Every structure is written in C-alpha cells, then in structure tokens.
C-alpha cells in the first residue's frame, strides 16, 4: 500500500501543523533506528548462517564417526552392549542449559552443553570390548555437542528471520506510508494556511479601500459644508445672493490656482 497520494483528515491550523511536524520528526527518527536495527540483525543473520553451514558439514563427519564407533563396539563387545551400558549409567553427565542473548533488542535463545559429574562405567565392557565402548561414548559425546550447537544456531536463525521480517515491514510502512502521508498533510495544511493568509490580505485591502473612500466622502462633505458657510457669510456681508457668492468664491479659487 502506498501513501503517496493520501493525507490525514485534520483541520488546517497552525497548532495541527506543529503536531504533524513533530510526528514527522518522530517517524523519521524511528525509521532511521529501525533501519539500523534491520542492518544489525541482517549482519548477525548472515554470521549465523555461515556457522550453520560449517556446523552441518562437521556434524556429518561426527555422526559418521560415532556410527562407525558404535559398530566397532558391537562387533567387539557383542550385540547386547546396550543392557550392559544401562546397568552402569545412573545419571547423565552431559546436560544442556538454555539462556538468552540480546542482539539489537531481539532475544535469541542459546543452548550450552556442560559436563556434570563422571560416569561410573569402570565395569562397562569389563569382559570384552571396554576400550571400544569408551571410544564409542567419546564419539557420541562429540556428536551431541555438535547437535546442541546446531540446535542453538538453528533456533537463533529462525528467531532472527522472524524479527528481520517484522522490522523490514515496519521500515517499509514508515518509509512508504506514514512519512509520505505526514508530508502530504503538512503540504496540505501549508497550502490552506497560505490561502487563508491571501484571503485575509485581500479582505484587509478591501476594508482599507472602503475606509479610504469613506474618509474622502466625509472630507468632501465637510469641505462643501464649509464652502457653504463661507458663501452664506459673504452673501450676508455684501448683500448678494447665495449663488452669486458661491460663484465669486469659485472664481477666486480658480484665480489662486492660476497664480500658483
């Protein structure tokens, strides 16, 4: 899904613009951090993949050696060696413990093997084949160690694969949906605010022109009233009609204009 032609449904105000800009900054930082996390997980993923390949190759040799050692032990000590071994072994000496390793915020399960105590198998194969039984045990111990290491790597591999896919989906969502949508919203709000500013400017110009015409009209009316008062005064002083006084004042104003 692409967010290139979409935007948020918001009211175009300065406050909302600040909020959307803050969200865009947070989305940008989150995208950068998730990108770094994805890169770190990918590097760890490739390293584990290389270890898995090498461990599987060595596992084949270990399993082959252990199977061959078991065949040798059965040949020397007989086919009923299983019962003899079970009678002399009470508890396991090779055990596995689990722990977690944190890689870029992802907890990877790890399995470690350790030896606890010693196997009381001094009498194992006492009649015959004791040396071959011990060699078989050592071969299988090495095989189990490789299997534990491989299980740890394989589990970490699957966990990392899921984490990388999730992180990449989030990175793509921020890059292709969230950020373009916020940018389109900011562009929309700025355009609406500019349009409102132009409308306010035009309204102010119209109001200013109306006030200017009103002032000019008032000045013209005041001037006409003053001229009427002067003409009335002149007509009373000289005993002429009001129209004659107005004409005389107009002629005198024209003469002054000519002189200037």
TrEMBL record:
Gene Ontology CC: proton-transporting V-type ATPase complex; vacuolar membrane
Coiled-coil stretches: none
InterPro entries reported in the protein's UniProt record: V_ATPase_D
GO MF annotation, one: proton-transporting ATPase activity, rotational mechanism
Keyword line: Ion transport, Transport
Family (UniProt): Belongs to the V-ATPase D subunit family.
Cross-referenced PANTHER family: V-TYPE ATP SYNTHASE SUBUNIT D
Protein name, per record: Uncharacterized protein
């Amino acid at each position: 899904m692409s967010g290139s032609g979409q935007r948020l449904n918001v009211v175009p105000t300065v406050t909302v613009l600040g909020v959307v800009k803050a969200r865009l900054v947070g989305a940008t930082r989150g995208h950068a951090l998730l990108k770094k996390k994805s890169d770190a997980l990918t590097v760890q993923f490739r390293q584990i993949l290389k270890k898995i390949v090498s461990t599987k190759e060595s596992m084949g040799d270990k399993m082959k050696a252990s199977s061959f050692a078991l065949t040798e032990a059965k040949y020397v000590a007989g086919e009923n060696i299983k019962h003899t071994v079970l009678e002399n072994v009470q508890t396991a000496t090779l055990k596995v413990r689990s722990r977690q390793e944190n890689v870029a915020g992802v907890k990877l399960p790890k399995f470690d093997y350790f030896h606890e105590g010693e196997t009381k198998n001094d009498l194992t194969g006492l009649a015959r084949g004791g040396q071959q039984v011990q060699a078989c045990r050592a071969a299988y111990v090495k095989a189990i160690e490789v299997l534990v290491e491989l299980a740890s790597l394989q589990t970490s591999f699957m966990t990392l694969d899921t984490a990388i896919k999730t992180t990449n989906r989030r990175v793509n969502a921020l890059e292709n949906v969230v950020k373009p949508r916020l940018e389109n919203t900011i562009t929309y709000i700025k355009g609406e605010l500019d349009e409102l500013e132009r409308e306010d400017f035009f309204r102010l110009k119209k109001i200013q022109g109306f006030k200017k015409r009103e002032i000019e009209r008032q000045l013209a009316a005041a001037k006409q009233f003053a001229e009427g008062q002067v003409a009335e005064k002149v007509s009373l002083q000289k005993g002429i009609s009001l129209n004659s006084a107005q004409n005389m004042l107009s002629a005198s104003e024209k003469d002054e204009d000519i002189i200037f």
